[in-house]
Protein 1
Amino acid sequence: MKSPETSVPQFDLIASSFRSQLLFWYNTHARDLPWRRSRDPYRIWISEIMLQQTRVAAVIEHYHEFLRRFPTVQKLAAARESSVLAGWSGLGYYRRARMLHAAAKLIARRRDGKFPTTAAEWLDLPGIGRYTAAAIASIAFGEPVAVVDGNVERVLQRVLGNRLAKERIWQAAGALLDPNRPGDFNQAMMELGAVVCAPRAPACLTCAVVNLCAARGELPATSVPARQQKRDIHYALICRRNHKGQEVFVVQRPRNACLMAGMWELPQAIVREAGEPVFTLKHSITTTDYSVMVYRKGLPAGADGKWITGSQARRMALTGLARKILIHASILWGSPEDDAARFPHLIV
Ligand code: SF4
């Protein structure tokens, strides 16, 4: 396909075929995802925030549980932050939950519970960027605004046969958008990128728009991907047993920390005093691969934290890594295999 400015009548013709072929495919092949069964802006908003940097399979279970806890924006707005973080536990990137909570308060208190209906209005809320605003406005309210996420960007670059700059991608997405079904079109573009036009080895033979695609495969690489950093990190597993059963000592991250502020985790161990680790595991966050070493320790004098049981840990806003360590130590749930099933995005 040619890019929008090369020949407008020709582009319009091709764009029309592209829309109808893509939507025909989406009508019959769209995955049955829980948030697609509703046009409720609250549900669509929750799903869009959860899906940021998180795989669909990992979101589904948390989506149902979060909505069970907070079925309306009013319930979410009235909840304590610690409850919201606990409801988010396992999804990671907790800043999203804090922003979601702040936006819910604004909607409930300043807008009398009424949701914004346009992308421009959604952009005024905390935690809402250009993509999310357009996704909610197009899916829930039918506003003809295009979305660009990683999947859409890849599809468009391949279809147009060109590594366009970001702003040009947004323009191309807007030019291709179906104004009659903008929400479905946006979801269809993302779906095509997620299940057919994959980053590696796209399934071009089964692609709904293969006849309109310039690349019909991966574009040549232009740069070397960023290398993962490697870091060691050391934690103390401090346990005691009393009438409540086994308890573990946890500490709270500073409320002004850049990452996971206010979340609970295990105390860090001082390596020179630590001896041999009782176990090690791997954990990855964005571009860093951590080797996590866990030591059995006694409670240091003056330690500032609290003792919790395994069942309390389930309801707390633990960091993903703390949760993973407690599962590995069989204090929380059962085994790393359970964790792999429940939180596949946390497992490396
Ligand atoms: S033909 Fe291949 S490269 Fe082009 S959009 Fe379809 S899957 Fe992607």
Note: Confidence is low (pLDDT under 50) at residues 334-348.
Protein 2
Amino acid sequence: MEIVYYPHPTLRYPSKTVRRVDRELRSIVREMFELMYDARGIGLAANQVDLPLQLFVVNASGDPEGGEELVFVNPVIDQPKGSGVSEEGCLSIPGVHADVNRPSQVHVTAYDLEGNEIDTVVDGLLARVIQHEYDHLQGVLFIDRISDSAKKQVASELEAFEFEFQSQRAADKIPDEQAVHKRLAEIESRYC
Ligand SMILES: [Zn+2]
């Protein structure tokens, strides 16, 4: 398992509801935390590791020894309040940063891996991370939410990612569109 980079098609794929949690999915989640820590991130969504599942992990401290490890399965966000601008980055677009305006507080419901319901109001950094990861599950990236002037500033960096992706695909290191969708369908039939 590895983190996929922009513009990998799974990053644009709307994730499906998880209906089954098994031992393998638990170990996938554990591996997602490890990949996130290795990449010095604070959140990681399933489609960032090429899985079409409504599931993301967060540790707002970014510290494997500290903070709280949170797993959100089938999350729903509502009741946005306030707004704030802060710089964001993304493990699928490493090195690219830009300001994003988001609600400063949201209400989240979800399930953890044991099937317990999560029902909480979050603000601050945690609210921002959760909204960023929730976006991933809808196929939305933070670069979709930045100003036109910020888009111009990051355009050449994004082009470099697009060029790298095309080169890798040409070298058969990334499967073609059809193969990507076939694999996603197989995972869906197991968990969704
Ligand atoms: Zn991200």
Note: Residues 90-92, 132, 136 surround zinc ion (CB under 6 Å).
